[in-house]
Specification:
Elements: H1 3-22, H2 25-32, H3 36-45, H4 47-73, E1 76-79, E2 81-82, E3 85-86, E4 88-90, E5 108-112, E6 114-117, H5 120-130, H6 132-135, H7 147-159
Antiparallel strand pairs: 1-6, 2-3, 4-5
Length: 169
């Protein structure tokens, strides 16, 4: 392998590594200091690069699906905010009483109070994708008649329309 081929391979590897991190061609090229048009030229002319890019894209797609399933089924923790500030759970003793400092202020947990939120819309999209015959969108489009006849009738209605607006009542 020549020095030029080695440098090209290193630049391609940098684009692919950044693509695996960002999931975006523009950001990957920017991070690797490679022009986007160079990336697309490699895709068109270098079958090895194309294969490696397609593998990285499949890998990234799998990670995205895994993350979507995680958010849909296990949810994510969101901090509870009240009047623009995080809310903290008071610390309690064994008897369940709120513990207080010397000034009488409640001792609060280190981490903010959180609620678990699930991505129900994401869950439905995953179900539709996995079971399209049962849960997919059912769209039925029907058309009857001749479109030319309908267009001619619409043009005639427009032509016969009074150009002056009706006076307000």
């Amino acid at each position: 392998m020549t020095h030029q081929e080695t440098m090209k391979r290193a630049r391609q590897d940098a684009v692919l590594a950044a693509f695996r991190e960002t999931g975006r061609v523009n950001k990957a090229c920017e991070a690797a200091d490679v022009a986007r048009r160079q990336h697309y030229e490699w895709l068109d002319t270098d079958t090895d690069y194309r294969a490696r890019f397609e593998a990285a894209d499949r890998e990234l797609s799998g990670l995205l699906v895994d993350e979507a399933i995680e958010r849909a089924t296990r949810g994510t923790l969101k901090p509870v905010v009240f009047q623009g500030m995080f809310t903290y759970e008071p610390i309690r003793n064994e008897a369940g009483e709120i513990m207080r400092d010397e000034q009488g202020k409640a001792l609060l947990a280190k981490d903010p109070l959180c609620v678990r939120e699930y991505a129900n819309d994401l869950l439905w999209k995953l179900i539709e994708a996995r079971l399209p015959e049962k849960y997919g969108r059912k769209v039925k489009v029907e058309h009857s008649g001749n479109i030319a006849v309908r267009m001619a009738a619409a043009r005639e209605r427009l032509k016969n329309r009074d150009p002056k607006p009706a006076p307000p009542q």
